[in-house]
């Protein structure tokens, strides 16, 4: 993680907490807390404080068992990057567990994002993610306080309890059927100062979208009311201005806090679609790249039937990193940080 | 436009044709063809052939009338970037017509994109855009041949004639009501070689999304089945592999031709949501930034009640530029270009 | 020029003045002032003030006569980029006058650099260039005040009058002999705040060097005492610290104001070597790329026998742009600019 | 190290060999070979072959003793980055051993550069560095074969034995005097294909210079005849073309194989000046940043009196990385690599 300002006192505990939110196997109550994914800081932090130089954090892969992957070497798994990577890298990619394409890569996003969130907190910015949809179950939009209060209260990270129950049931159903489900993670960033981002080449929406599409399985990024704008009229979609507590605000927030690629002071909101986990234990059609013949594959191993709940801290992390990056490159924030030191 | 390979014979006519597709006032049959937006090439082309150095193309603003904009200087238009830009640039932005935030900026995208499409054609790649949705009217998904045949046959650029008729009616209705409509542009790129893009930091989807969010009014970018993945099961969403004419293909294309950020040889497909034109001649609430009081604004001037049809060549252009960029940075394509010279 | 902060009132006169310093044909007293190279601003400045968006400035080529270049199409000029460009661009480069490789490109550096200097002035930073060496004539190192007073007092831009006289004589001599001379331009930037630049990937010296090597004919970049360090001892080279007027300073400035890639508050100094003008009217050996046979070439046209004096504003401009870029990306300066508005 | 092509079989032995060349304490014959700085590969190599994804190599600091650095916390060492870093990072930098500014950082350059050299070898490119100057002792320019034969034959890495002897004596002398010496490393890259690099924004010289200035203690970068061009005439400096073995070559190579920022097929040559080791055990003036008073410092610890010999593999590594980067981004080389697989 490069670019983190010097002088920030790092809370390793809070980084670890975010890593634990991303960790597999959290939802079963009886699962004993394992010591997996302990974050170590190798550089960039001295006496507990950021030095301003690159921060290297690492978690070691301890119980990876690559053996199930050997037989998929030549038969790409449907929905995975195996085939595209094989072409891109001439067959030399590390096929075990998806390698560079693995969801495991998001551990890095969360480590860095957890630190970004800490710095943003000092700027007064709060980043809140939650599960909005799993399969056919769509939750109503919660208030920020509901996210804070209920976001971690159930295993699907949906702050609307009734929806959460139905999501849990939907996941259980596909799990039994040897199938999987997709869904949507929503994210809201509060107290983002206006004026971050710029038109055309570094829009805030463009940077958020590019970063979010780095997360495996993301297939859509929407800003504010997003795709819903398509069926709106201008008189509905336009966020009209008013003055509230002496500050310029908008009456609605269909824009998701961004106009012309620049933050306008309203909450930044986005919606990220994740496709269903592609690894499912059903027979699927594939091809044998060695023999160039059609084949069948059954993907085994430990796979979540729905990765959406674990993706919540990942989305928060990515959003936090992009916002921090823009905040640091803008003139407004340097002063705030300086004073906070 | 930097990075265009040397030795490509430029068709100025085809660049101009794309500019004409983007031009305002095309849809009225009686509108005489004006000589607006004639593209001039200032550098990078010598004896009709690209030199490999930056290509500067320009169209001059001829009949811009900035006077309607003077009174909006202090009262930001709802749905526009006026307020965010004012904060970002300390009140020094050029407020006339949106300045750097104007839809006028897309003229540059189309000039460069038209050239990118020409080069891609030599690589066998075809980029086809069309209107998928306007307001509540959603078109069925057309075949590539239907896009080629019907895409320009009606003023809304929807290759499904019955949908096109309903879209035209919907636009007429809001125009009369002093309102506007949003919609979706779809884009498909055929014959894109597998292996373009890379995981994590330069995914093809991320680069497409970042570039598409540079287009004013874009609020969502979906790849392949996009947001539809949220309510799918893995067994539905996974694109299973087969061999067709000796090549590896997928039976479905929910992934939109991209797995793990890398093209897989199937058509690249994306869906881009545009919000309704924010400039509507109805009274709307705003604030006076000079007096810091609430105010009312009616936005006048020449504004399309729906910009979606004109956005079709813009989306095609952006997609073409991103694909060309990845094709050039990959090792696969250099050879093709070299031979084609 | 992208990244110039909003709210700066632009002096077009001072930009034009810098362009006039770079203009050919200045040194002959009898040469009437032509109206060549008038700078036009096409974008990014509104009501005389920068908007914060990209600034496009242009000068039009008016009396270019490409005819002398036709016969060099296939016979690359020794010392020029003709051959390398021909390979790089497959023979499609614009060979007239060097095209993208022409010294003419430095007009763009000077336009942008002149604006950068204006902004730096508001930060208290002053950038002063001068001719240190032409051929065998090496000037003693002047004080900043001598540069200000004498830098423009003679046609070679050397603030040491006796050296200047000898430089003029040396140039006259090679001109008569149909030959040319190289030299060195020195540049000093005063009042640069400490703390600009960073180690390893964005060192201030590295960015200065990369930018300076963009100037045609540059063959060496030295920082501070530069290559002279090779024959120094540590006890001579180390700049020892002291306190002067309450500020940390160094007793010497062999480091050229940069330690570890970061400015230390002392003047930034560098030395830039320009090779002799390669265009000389003597017969030289070349090859005919069409016939692949050896050949002879005599390069005619209007060429300075020594470009070093005209390179002084170019070097100043490049240094100014790099410093401004680092100043803007650092937290220190934003505040200064904000207050200065 | 990102961007290394897939399919390259890595020789860890040859990487280790380069690390051993950079290692401290090599020159004393009696020094037993310690097992320091063993390179481990953490990612990007699978079954001994590069995967195309980022390669993480690490050496662990084992016997670092930071205690001598505690007392320099507030008293910056002359010639070091301590003070500049303290300003840049608000006093939060890791002051032990120079932290991010330490010569230790070049271990990373050598690991990555060793791998770059391996890939370049498959392209036929050979990178040879050697010591050209130490203090007042300047070696004559050797042939490539002399560098291969004699470059490692003496502790100063100077392929001219008589000069090497004098260099050794000069270093011994300053060591006894508690002082240090600077010098120059030369580097030549053979068989670099013509056409790498581009004008203005990515010149080969600019990229080499920027990368070389990333190496601590570098104060000048010269290309080809470098600063020597200042006192040349055009008729001397111009490299005239001829045909040799059917290929276009130049009779001299003052340009160092680069014209207009682009390789011309001749050997790439550069000269890099290193300042004397700033850590010397003599009393020097400094200031106490805590008390803001003048002070005295004596820098102790294990420091080479001249780092130039150990810098030879560092310069080679940096040059190799820049050349590989340009080779990969050019169309010419992809094909060669593909065939070589």
Q: What's the architecture of chain A, going by CATH?
A: 4-Layer Sandwich
Number of extended strands of chain A = 15
Let me know the average pLDDT of chain A.
91
CATH superfamily of chain A: Chorismate synthase AroC
Rg of chain A over CA atoms, rounded to whole Å, is 21 Å
Provide the low-confidence segments of chain A as ranges.
28-33
Cα end-to-end separation of chain A: 20 Å
State the secondary-structure class of chain A. Answer: alpha+beta
Q: Write down the CATH class of chain A.
A: Alpha Beta
Content of β-strand of chain A: 15-25%
Kindly give the count of domains of chain A: 1
Give me the CATH fold name of chain A.
Chorismate synthase, AroC fold
Order of helices and strands of chain A: HEEEEHHEEHHEHEHEEEEEEEHH
The helix content of chain A is: 25-40%
Sheet with the most strands: spatial strand order of chain A: 6-5-7-13-8
**Number of helices, counting only DSSP H or I runs of 4 residues or more of chain A:** 9
Q: Based on Cα principal axes, name the global outline of chain A.
A: globular
Question: In terms of topology, how is this protein built?
Answer:
Four copies of one chain form a homotetramer.
Chain A: H1 12-22, E1 40-43, E2 45-46, E3 49-50, E4 56-58, H2 82-88, H3 106-122, E5 126-134, E6 137-138, H4 144-150, H5 161-176, E7 183-190, H6 204-212, E8 218-223, H7 234-237, E9 241-244, E10 247-250, E11 258-259, E12 262-263, E13 268-274, E14 284-288, E15 293-297, H8 308-329, H9 331-340
Antiparallel strand pairs in A: 1-4, 2-3, 5-6, 5-7, 7-13, 8-13, 9-10, 11-12, 14-15
């Amino acid at each position: 993680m490069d670019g983190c300002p010097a002088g920030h006192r790092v809370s390793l505990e809070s980084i670890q907490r975010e890593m634990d939110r991303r960790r597999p196997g959290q939802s079963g109550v009886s699962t004993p807390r394992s010591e997996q994914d302990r974050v170590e800081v190798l550089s960039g932090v001295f006496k507990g404080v950021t030095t301003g130089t690159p921060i290297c954090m690492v978690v070691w892969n301890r119980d990876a068992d690559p053996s199930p992957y050997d037989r998929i070497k030549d038969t790409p798994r449907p929905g995975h990057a195996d085939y595209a990577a094989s072409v891109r890298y001439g067959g030399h990619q590390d096929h075990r567990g998806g390698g560079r394409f693995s969801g495991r890569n998001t551990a890095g996003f969360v480590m860095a994002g957890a630190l970004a969130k800490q710095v943003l907190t000092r700027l007064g910015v709060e980043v809140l993610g939650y599960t909005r949809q799993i399969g056919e179950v769509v939750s109503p939009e919660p208030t920020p306080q509901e996210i804070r209060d209920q976001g971690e209260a159930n295993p699907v990270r949906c702050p609307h309890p009734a929806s959460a129950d139905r999501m849990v049931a939907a996941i259980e159903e596909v799990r039994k059927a040897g199938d999987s489900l997709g869904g949507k993670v929503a994210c809201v960033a509060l107290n983002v100062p206006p004026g971050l981002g710029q038109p055309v080449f570094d829009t805030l929406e463009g940077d958020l979208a590019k970063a979010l599409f780095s997360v495996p399985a993301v297939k859509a990024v929407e800003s504010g009311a997003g795709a819903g704008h398509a069926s709106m009229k201008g008189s509905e979609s336009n966020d009209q201005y008013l003055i509230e507590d002496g500050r310029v605000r908008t009456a609605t927030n269909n824009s998701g806090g961004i106009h012309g690629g620049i933050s306008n002071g309203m909450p930044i909101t986005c919606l990220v679609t994740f496709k269903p986990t592609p690894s499912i234990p059903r027979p699927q059609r594939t091809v044998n790249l060695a023999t160039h013949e059609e084949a069948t594959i059954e993907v085994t191993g430990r796979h979540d039937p729905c990765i959406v709940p674990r993706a919540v801290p990942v989305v928060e992390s990515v959003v936090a990193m992009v916002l921090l990056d823009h905040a640091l490159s803008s003139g407004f924030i340097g002063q705030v940080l300086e004073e906070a030191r």
